[in-house]
Design a protein that fits this description.
This protein is of the alpha+beta class and 283 residues long. It has one domain: 2,3-Dihydroxybiphenyl 1,2-Dioxygenase, domain 1. The protein has 5 helices and 18 strands. It has an 8-stranded mixed β-sheet with strand order 2-3-4-1-15-18-17-16, covered by helices on one side. An 8-stranded mixed β-sheet has the order 6-7-8-5-11-14-13-12. A two-stranded antiparallel sheet has the order 9-10. The longest helix has 13 residues. The radius of gyration is 18 Å and the shape is globular. The relative contact order is 0.20.
Length: 283
């Protein structure tokens, strides 16, 4: 569908912080089904295709538990390729005794669960974009009950869940922020996204190329919520993949024009949204 491939800009990678890497890795490998691409004493790059990493874990020095009522990670969202994949991981999670929530968002069907540190993870599939309902520039989304009876008809008992399919991608990221006005300016004027849904005065959903959202932002932890400490469990950064050097350069120019900080080092560009969430700008 092209929402997670060039020339569309998309979220290609998320890096999260955990308290104990040796505790987290069995969860991400045995429960979710990632493979390890690279590992050090304090970091692990996770993969689904054996070639690229869509998720990294990092154990900071003097790490502290996840802080409540702060900005940062609400959840990162793993997009599976087929409805049978979502059905099979439902069976797998139940068999493993893992608690999870669920929702039908009209544009997608989603599961929600937490890793051992409380980092929230969404695992979802998209409905065909031809079935998304648009009212002008806004796409209809909801938080409806998921029809498990229907979903589980797509399960394949002869080929149960073993691991993340190779075609799995990082679908989107959803962030806690301290306010919405400057946040909207940053993501729209700075990074070139479109607002595709406004959830009252508390949340925005933004995307490239008419996706339902590559980034969600909300103030559900409170307007004016502080940033967590640097060594707290939670989000380290996420990466936007641009089509080419020219589109990245334009984004850097736009960010600087609105007064956003952009740090360049060895051809790596990092920017920070108004709530301090770090974003790597990659090609």
């Amino acid at each position: 569908m092209g929402f997670h491939t060039k020339p569309t800009t998309f979220v290609g990678h998320v890096k999260i912080k955990v308290e104990q890497l040796e505790r987290s890795l069995p969860f991400y490998k045995e429960i979710l089904g990632f493979d390890i691409l690279e590992q050090t004493a304090s970091t692990a790059k996770l993969t689904t295709d054996g070639k690229t990493s869509i998720l990294s874990l990092e154990q900071p020095e003097n790490v502290t538990p996840k802080q409540g009522r702060t900005t940062g990670l609400y959840h990162f969202a793993i997009l599976l390729p087929e409805q049978s994949d979502l059905a099979n991981i439902v069976v797998h999670l139940v068999n493993k005794g893992i608690r999870f929530g669920s929702s039908d968002h009209l544009v997608s069907e989603a599961l929600y669960l937490h890793d051992p540190d409380g980092n929230e993870i969404e695992i979802y599939i998209d409905r065909d974009p031809s079935k998304w309902n648009w009212n002008g520039d806004e796409v209809a989304m909801a938080v409806d009950p998921l029809d498990f009876e229907k979903l589980l008809t797509f399960a394949t008992p002869d080929h149960p869940w073993q691991k993340m399919p190779a075609e799995t991608v990082m679908g989107h990221i959803h962030l806690h922020v301290s306010e919405l006005n400057k946040t909207e300016e940053f993501y729209v004027k700075g990074l070139g996204m479109d607002v595709v849904n406004r959830f009252g005065a508390q949340a925005l959903f933004l995307s490239y190329g008419k996706y339902h959202h590559h980034v969600g932002v909300n103030t559900w932890n409170g307007v004016g919520a502080p940033a967590p400490s640097d060594n707290s469990v939670g989000l380290e950064s996420f990466t936007l993949i641009f089509d080419n050097e020219e589109t990245r350069k334009q984004a850097v120019t736009n960010l600087k024009q609105i007064g956003a900080e952009v740090v360049e080092k060895d051809n790596h560009f990092i920017t920070f949204d108004p709530s301090g969430n770090a974003i790597e700008l990659a090609v």
